[in-house]
Amino acid sequence: MIQYVFEFIGTLVLVLLGDGVCAATSLNKSKAKGGGWVVIALGWGLAVMLGVLIAGPVSGAHLNPVVTLGLAIAGFFSWALVPGYVVAQMLGGFLGACLVWSFYKDHYKATADQPDTILGTFCTMPAIDNKWRNFWCECVATWLLVFCILAIGWGSNVFTVGNADASIGAIGSWPVTCVIMSIGMSLGGTTGYAMNPARDLSPRCAHAVLPIAGKRDSGWAYSWVPVAGPAVGAALAAGLYLLVF
After folding, report:
1. Distance CA 236, CA 242 (A)
2. What CATH number has the domain bearing residue 135?
3. Which candidate, 41, 47, 239, places its Cα nearest to that of 146?
4. Which of 23, 31, 160, 238 has its CA 20 to 30 A from that of 228?
5. Residue 115: which H helix or E strand, with range?
6. Cα R_g (the chain), whole angstroms
């Protein structure tokens, strides 16, 4: 049970800081408005790092349903724990998005005439709406994310110096942070690199239910893409890992 609590808290922090940087750089009258894509990529990377540092020692800090799926397929995680992890992650993502809204509520009001911008602080939407291409982009980006996570923990990346664990896995929050930032900067321009249903679908649900002035629909016609694409990508990453490692 305690693992679920830490997955919930870690994912909450991830979305609070991740959606928070989107709000900070996008909403009117924010001091960070116009910070740009590099700030967003850095912000999301650091958000993941902090979530991992919080939850890692207890739950392993998946913070993402498709990471949980990929680890289970690769044989590194019990299938019996998958449902509880996914529920905890999705609830954490929902509450994290709600906290962002409460934090930036005045700025949401000041941006009420820009419903697309408001939606973009909660969830992803494609730069060019081509759903199967968008699906492919999310699939490839998440494949790379999960494959890198699995590779980071591979045997050759694990070693000790004396009695101290000097493995890359011992400082795993930092390399995963770098992976997130690299993917965001290199592959995020098409879809916004959701790669995580708890980062996209949960905040999308929060957008749908919160009383946000001037909001548009929550982009439900697109909502399957950042769920199905990452799920397929994670499964492919796990399969490739089992094949080559």
Report:
1. 10
2. 1.20.1080.10
3. 239
4. 23
5. helix 115-120
6. 18
- Report whether 204 contacts 210 (CB < 8 A): no
Over range 195-207, report the average pLDDT: 98
Count Cβ atoms below 10 Å from residue 166 Cβ, excluding itself: 12
CA distance 237 to 25: 32
Residue 91, judged by CB atoms within 10 A of its CB (0-12, 13-18, 19+), counts as middle
Q: Looking at the 3D structure of the chain, how many domains does it have? A: 1
- Classify residue 230 by burial, with Cβ atoms within 10 Å: 0-12, 13-18, 19+: buried
User: Hey, what amino acid is at 237?
Assistant: A
Separation in Å, CA 145 to CA 1, 18, 112, 142: 27, 17, 35, 5
Please report, as a single letter, which amino acid is at residue 160: T
Q: Is the pLDDT of residue 169 over 60?
A: no
Question: In the predicted model, what is the mean pLDDT of residues 64-77?
Answer: 95
Range of the domain at 95: 2-244
- Global pTM reads 0.93
